[in-house]
Design a protein that fits this description.
With about 100 residues, the protein is mainly β. It has strands at about 1-5, 10-15, 20-25, 30-35, 40-45, 45-50, 60-80, 85-100. The chain is elongated.
């Protein structure tokens, strides 16, 4: 059994027990998170495709913690002007474990 969900403008194919890294949410470890936008739902032999979403289907998960992505370096440079600027950025992500996929 698997589902295709939408979160943060991206689509994810998820199964029960899978660990998923999504955009940052202000939630602490152990909190429950619910995904209501289920685009497709497969239960072995049956496949339900939503128009645009499958009615009554939802995916629940548990927050495992917050992660930081790789460090990105941004450099600005203007030739012959003695201008150099260097900054960095690390994006925050939330790690979620999928616990239950429920459908119609």
């Amino acid at each position: 059994m698997y589902a295709i969900i939408i979160d943060g403008g991206r689509q994810y194919k998820v199964i029960e027990g899978q660990e998923l890294v999504i955009d940052y949410r202000d939630a602490s470890a152990g909190d429950a998170v619910q995904f209501d936008q289920v685009v497709a739902l497969s239960t072995g032999s049956q496949m339900q495709i939503g128009e645009p979403t499958v009615g009554g289907a939802k995916v629940t998960g548990k927050v495992l913690g917050v992660l930081q992505g790789p460090k990105l370096t941004v450099q600005k440079f203007r030739r012959r002007k003695t201008y150099r600027a260097k900054t960095g950025h690390r994006q925050l992500y939330t790690k979620v474990q999928i616990e239950k996929i429920s459908g119609v």
